[in-house]
Amino acid sequence: MLRPRLPPLLNAAKRRCLSTAHDAPPASAHVPAAARVDRWLSDFSAGLIAGRAQESFAPERSFWRDMVAFTWSIRTFEGAGQIGQALAATTPSAQPHGWYADGTPTEDATDGSLECWLRFRTAAGGGKALLKLDQEGKASSLFTSLSDLDTRPFATGGRRALGHPCESIDEIGTPRPDRRYWHERRAAALPAALGGEAGEPYVLIVGGGQGGLSLGARLQLLGVPYVVVEADARIGDSWRKRYPGLMLHDPVWYDHLPYMPFPASWPVFTPRDKLADWLQHYATAMDLTVATSTRVTRAVPPADGGGGDGRWEVKLQPAGSTGAEERTSSGGSVTLRPAHVVLATGMSGVPRVPAPPAGGGAAQGPFAGEVMHSSAYPGAGGGRFAGRRAVVVGSNTSAHDICQDLWEQGAQSVTMLQRSAGLVVSETSVLEHGLGSLYSEGALERGVTTELADLVVASAPLRLQEERWREGTARMRRTDASLHARLAAVGYNLDFGEDGTGIFGKSFRRGGGFYIDVGCASLLSDGRVALRSGSGAEIAQIEPHAVRLRSGEALSADLLVYATGFESMHHFVSDLVSPAVAARVGRVWGYGSGAHLDPGPWEGELYLL
Amino acid sequence: MLRPRLPPLLNAAKRRCLSTAHDAPPASAHVPAAARVDRWLSDFSAGLIAGRAQESFAPERSFWRDMVAFTWSIRTFEGAGQIGQALAATTPSAQPHGWYADGTPTEDATDGSLECWLRFRTAAGGGKALLKLDQEGKASSLFTSLSDLDTRPFATGGRRALGHPCESIDEIGTPRPDRRYWHERRAAALPAALGGEAGEPYVLIVGGGQGGLSLGARLQLLGVPYVVVEADARIGDSWRKRYPGLMLHDPVWYDHLPYMPFPASWPVFTPRDKLADWLQHYATAMDLTVATSTRVTRAVPPADGGGGDGRWEVKLQPAGSTGAEERTSSGGSVTLRPAHVVLATGMSGVPRVPAPPAGGGAAQGPFAGEVMHSSAYPGAGGGRFAGRRAVVVGSNTSAHDICQDLWEQGAQSVTMLQRSAGLVVSETSVLEHGLGSLYSEGALERGVTTELADLVVASAPLRLQEERWREGTARMRRTDASLHARLAAVGYNLDFGEDGTGIFGKSFRRGGGFYIDVGCASLLSDGRVALRSGSGAEIAQIEPHAVRLRSGEALSADLLVYATGFESMHHFVSDLVSPAVAARVGRVWGYGSGAHLDPGPWEGELYLL
Predict the structure, then answer these.
(1) Residue A126 or A606, more confident
(2) Which of A440, A525, B363, B559 has CA 20 to 30 A from A65's CA?
(3) What number is the average pLDDT over the span A90-94?
(4) A48 pLDDT exceeds 60?
(5) Nearest to residue A315, comparing CAs of A577, A77, A105?
(6) Chain A residues inside the 8 Å CB shell of B177
(7) What's the CA gap between B76 and A456, in Å, rounded?
(8) Which residues of chain B make contact with A286, given a CB cutoff of 8 A?
(9) Do B269 and A162 make contact, defined as CB atoms within 8 angstroms?
(10) Is the pLDDT of residue A304 over 80?
């Protein structure tokens, strides 16, 4: 997931311990930043109690974005009036108090504004906030988030498990008749969860990829009973099944899992198998309760009867083990009654393959070569497709990767059929203008950990982010000018997002529509991979030994790959639960910007884990 | 490994950002600590150049301990005169320069001394130092260590691998004909190392436990060709083969492996299988070059012919695979010619079983029950030894653990035969008075990372540490007073080290002779596990259904476990290389204190990884 580059204010905000250069001292310069924050906190705290907190915010252009702490949801409010009303409505139950500045504020000399992390408490637990003050001393934005629950702290650090079956160090010396060794207790966890012995899981997580495992880890350490259900035989298989040259295009600082970050030696870009192995290890090292080779076949929500008492009824079945190394389900169908069901089934649903071209061709016979969707592409290593004449339909990342792989491994000819416009960017511009300010070694050196970076991104209302995306896209265009010129010269259809928000907008709204170049751009630019684009590049007819385009051109071919993407994960809801519930949930991804292929709207704003 | 609790000076030294209370201002109080350090650094730097560096040290009671930076060894020098000579001898080649204080000094109000971390550079790379100044402004101790080599930096952080087969982000977009996917490159690493294809490994590491893997990781990231050779089928098996209830007694903060620390949720005390799995995962996640199911059968050093050109000649053979999941050797015998051989074969050599008692018993017949060394003890789970009458010979940790396990899992009777005195301590006293000041959540909160803690311990000459050990042992005795009284009351033979250095001295000198209580002390105190101690507890005769002690008592028995320890790892040197080389290397462990069972002396001082 790409994140926008933040404007100079926030970059400067992260340079702790470095002095800020001042061109001309702003009006507020004579009052130290820390004092300005303290004054605001004092006024704001009093205002919360007196019901006039809106006075602490800039009247027009101000935002309050809350993640759980006040609203138990993700909400953004704009303008002092709306903010004041929302605070008044939520403060009585949230009972916010104990505000203080966490660290030193950072100032932006250009406009006299400052930014400061805060801590506070609510009736439920502890919170973190990010405050931005304008030079009048009003809040231009406040982001509040809940960090921990008093009644259910995370079992880490000083609260971690002992290892011994007791609660305190003093009890370690107590002998235990019929002691179960640790590995026996561990092995019993899953059968107990599935057999209802441990009590019904409170949360059932469908899917054991990075999303499902991350959530499982959080619940594990909160002591909330859960189970992760994974259809594949081993954790990580969903990645192992991808084509062999696959690498992550997001850099390592952006990819850490909670509690167990990648080591400092981990490569910047993670290869497929390395990621799969790490996920498998994560599930083990974090002692997660995971059922592999198990499929959810049906999930009936409480509103539709479900399991009674406000519970879901979820049916699990063995998914046809293929030599599973890990625990499988109890062998037969199991019915669980969780309070919550989470679908962590991944961005991609079923492969989408276009309908065959209408009419014609029957007399000529079917395609004599191999046809496959990109999800079934096995890789061209070992000369598997050497000498082949390949046509790849699509211009998403898989299309580019597959074209590159075919060329590198000796295909005779490779042609990409680009049906819709896309954006190609260099990894350099992504790191420099996209992620680098928050997710990089440089960011780490400035004290911006992944956790902090994630909070910074979460703090920005999407309406403000769109401005940054346009700025970032413009910078990237300058960096990638010659790359784009070379691609345009061979007919590549480039688009920078309807409103110039580039890969950032495309990411948040569509989850695709761009390619981070890892070699295919060069091949396209100089014709080593041929390109056909536009409406004339549509397939009109498939012949036994060729693909005929709408333009009339016949491309000699004995390999046809449909890199045409996947249906939305939305269909899992429809299949597992019901079409009615799927309609109520709405389509997954996007945030209702109204842009092309943004499936929104959602209620509230999108927060992507 | 236990480390001594440090005296108040060093504890205070770690409390960054907390003010120190002053009872009576010492003479030097009016000069800020940072200025005192700067003055010393200035004088010392000048003194190094002018050959009068000894003037910076207290004339009598001062130490300079160097780890690699100056001496390319581990050396301790005492007294300004000796220190000055050693500095003069090493400075011309080390060329130390660029000294500066790293962080703020911490002061001890009681004697006006202060402590400060320093950084410096040498001709070879960067260094870290720890300086202690007395109130006269002279160094009472200086610890210097080399952190990194300029010509061979560790491939971490900003120097980590890219993942793509290229050196810089800008080259990522370059297509590569015949590209080998990452997992293919990874799979080729071991065969290449063993086949000499990658060039001979520079270092051959015998043993794939935590020591061998840690060293392998360092060499991996230094780009030094190496291979780890492990006889077992899987990394971690050496731990999996131990008895099932085994847990680490050192707490997690003490146990982290380099680059990949345990997650914040990891239990304080690590169970056997969890550790085994983590080690297995470590080897994979760190991309280490490891040959499993492979044994070193012979290692001929350069001096004895070896592989020529100053190289060893080392023969490897498959070790009889048992369904190895990981790469095995090439199938037959392989000969390698490394420049260096490291034995990371573990603390324990072959099991030591006492000779059977002389004379008598032949007429009665052999023992009718089961006999085994503790290393073959399978655990009593599942009722395996329920109802048995067990005699356990020895009073080391395994003896206590096995007695406890037998009692917990339903043995009819358990008797421990304590032949030599030992020390029993509670985990509470170990954490409070042993490790806690440096290895704990509290230490972390004070900014003492594991890396820093390790440096602090490494910085102290053993002669100074012995004083601390006595102090720590005295504190532990007070905490454990009632525990000791209860044990003494049933005849347990307690010893606190010849010079009162307790578990610390025993650890450093012998690697044993104590038990950290995880339940057996309670069983011994109230007789649920019987105890026979002293010379009368030696076995005089083994009868078919009993063990007869020298005291004349016959203990009914159908299970006899020899928890009698292991030979030194020293024998590996003798077996693999030669007895002559073994004699030259000397016995492993200890440091020549002259204390009982300290196998030293070593040249220089011991540094235990």
Answers:
(1) A126
(2) A440
(3) 97
(4) yes
(5) A577
(6) 408, 410
(7) 49
(8) 263, 265
(9) yes
(10) yes
Q: Is the pLDDT of residue A25 over 60?
A: no
* Tens of pLDDT, residues B270-297: 999 999 999 999 999 999 999 999 999 9
Cβ contact B392:B547 at 8 Å: no
Q: Where do we find the tokens 């903060």? A: B253
- Which segments of B166-293 does DSSP mark as H helices, in order? 182-194, 210-222, 237-240, 272-285
- Report the candidate in B373, B250, B203, B314 with the shortest Cα–Cα distance to residue B2: B250
Query: CA B571, CA B90: separation in Å to the nearest integer?
Result: 36
Residue of A nearest to B180 (CA): A381
Kind and range of the H or E run holding A462:
helix A462-479
For residue B370, CA distances in Å to A51, A260, A427, B413, B559 come to 80, 45, 66, 15, 5
Cα A57–A61–A66 angle (5° rounding)? 60
Cβ(B555)–Cβ(B387) under 8 Å?
no
**pLDDT for res A591:** 74
Beta-carbon separation of A260 and B259 below 8 A: no
Q: Per DSSP, what are the bridge partners of residue B546?
A: B543, B556
Residue B335 φ then ψ, to 5°: -115, 125
Tokens standing for A579?
Answer: 């079409």
Helices (H), B136-270: 182-194, 210-222, 237-240
Shortest distance, CA A258 to any CA of chain B (angstroms):
9
Give the mean pLDDT of chain B: 88
* Measured distance CA(A277)–CA(A274) in Å, rounded: 5
- Closest CA relative to residue A563, chosen from A420, A402, A434, A438: A402
Q: Is the pLDDT of residue B402 over 90?
A: yes
Nearest-CA distance A11 → chain B (Å): 19
A284 phi and psi angles, rounded to 5 deg: -75, -50
CA distance B65 to B76: 4
Measured between beta carbons, which residues in chain B are less than 8 angstroms from residue A414? Answer: none
Q: Are B374 and B394 in contact (CB under 8 A)?
A: yes
Summarize pLDDT for A500-532 with one digit per residue, the tens: 999 999 988 888 899 999 999 999 999 999 999
Q: Select from B341, B364, B308, B509 the least CA-distant residue to B423.
A: B509
Residue of B nearest to A483 (CA): B173
Nearest 5°: CA angle at B532, between B526 and B536?
155
What residue in B sits closest to A221 (Cα-Cα)?
B265
- Report helix, strand or coil for B377: coil
The type of residue at B430 is V
Element (H, E) at B585: helix B579-585
Neighbours of B555 (CB within 10 A): 20
Predicted confidence at residue B159, as pLDDT, reads: 95
Pick among B176, B183, B220 to test the A interface (most A CBs inside 10 A): B183
Residue B46 has pLDDT above 70, yes or no: yes
Q: Could you give the CA distance from residue A424 to residue A396 in angstroms, rounded to a whole number?
A: 10
B351 within 8 A of B566, measured Cβ to Cβ: yes
pLDDT tens figures, B516-562: 999 999 999 999 999 999 999 999 999 999 999 999 999 999 999 99
Read off the pTM. Answer: 0.90
Q: Which amino acid is at A450?
A: T
**Nearest-by-Cβ selection for A173 from B160, B272, B518:** B518
CB B235 within 8 A of CB B208: yes
- Beta strands (DSSP E) in B8-83 are 63-67, 74-78
Q: For residue A263, list chain B residues with Cβ-Cβ distance below 8 A.
A: 156, 259-260, 285-286
Rounded CA separation B93/B87 (Å): 10
As a whole number of angstroms, the distance between CA A320 and CA A328 comes to 10
- Tokens linked to B182: 């990452």
Distance of CA A508 to the CA centre of its chain: 9
The angle, 0 to 180 degrees and rounded to 10, between the axes of the packed helices B462-479 and B502-510 is: 130
